[in-house]
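HOLO CASE FILE
Compound: guanine
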Amino acid sequence: NPVPDSAIRGPVLTFTGDPFASSVEDTMLYESDAIVAIGDGVVTHFGPADKIQPQLPAGLEVRNYGPDALITAGFLDSHVHFPQTPMIAAFGEQLIDWLKKYTFPTERKFADKAFAASVAKVFLDECLKNGITTSCVYCTVFPQSVDALFEEAERLGMRMAAGKVLMNRNAPDYLLDTTQSGYDDSKALISKWHNRGRLMYAITPRFAPTSTPDQLDSAGALWDEFPDCYMQTHVSENLDEVAGVKQLFPERKGYLDVYDHSKLCRPRAVFGHGIHLTEDELCCMHQTGSAIAHCPTSNFFLGSGYFDVYRAKDPKRPVRVGIGTDLGAGTSFSILSTLNEAYKAAQLNGKALTAAHAFYFATRGTARAMYIDDKVGSIAPGMEADLVVLDMKSTPIIDYRMQFVEDIHEALFVQMTLGDDRAVQATYVAGKLQYEQSKAR
Ligand code: GUN
Ligand code: ZN
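Model generated. Tokens follow.
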């Protein structure tokens, strides 16, 4: 183990397993006064403060955030479009019209590398302000937009997955690639970026309607060549979209089968939304090790529906599920606000998402969906030191409400229901303090 070069102290929440698979008691770990020590960007020590303090090198400064803080693993976002940052909160349309009216014209601007770089900076700063240390990011069809995102993520030392959108039909000409150019550009980006430091490449066919079967096959073939990459796309988000896919691919059993047929259902596949998947499709997801990114703020904003997370996680055939902001159809960079909306989506399905399950999604659950739960998403020696420090009394009403909470579960539920970026006090990336909220608000 590396020698610690820094340490922080305060209440800590982390997970040792999946509360959907066993119990919350067996998988949620809360220490009311803990120390997390860091060396070489990884956690070297974690445990009760009185037990860890004597193990630390003499003179190591321990930064104490105090009893009103909560230290957790950095949050993860399994589905987000960085080029849509300039068009978050665009009025009045459901998915297909929203894409045509707002999304495609905005993404056109990313042919300009300087513009892409400026947005990448705003985007990643906003992630850090919200405690997000890892995301799975859609760029645009332009390879330079991928360079822009990775260059900034590398500068910040973040563990990020991203990829060039593949799209060769049913979009404006100015955004189309071809099967061959999409393959060539993606392959060149993989050589340049995949596994460089903490960066990871995601092969990114936008969704079935904007790729020919030939382009989807080519994405599957590229993935065969680089099987440890990600593959991200959208599935069964909107009922008109599902009907459109039926028309475009009449020979396939259903929407997911379009992807499965092109060998795109595997471990490290991240499918956005999946609201309207059938039982057979959920079985296919389970069997192939594919994951769903649950994006509740987006689903409500576009009127797409409300994803049933307990159904997806049914222990008979559990599907990996991560949480996603899906900006700019998503309406917030805040993972806390996203958990708030996930709770409401569960309510509409007649189920109650507990705070423990919600915070699992924000951290280890999404890391597991992305097959990086051995690296990030929980706090333990050897894990990469991506950490967020929450202020549990970040607004007057939260401060007031917190005096009435009786246990950590209630406290967490208040945070996810009322909290937002103001609750994020500090964000550490690989042990380095990369964001600290200024106290003068
Ligand atoms: N489906 C295809 N592209 C998109 C997109 O950019 N956002 C959302 N929410 N759904 C999509
Ligand atoms: Zn999306």
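CASE NOTES: The domain at 75-369 is CATH 3.20.20.140 (TIM Barrel). The chain has 16 helices and 17 strands.
CLOSED: yes
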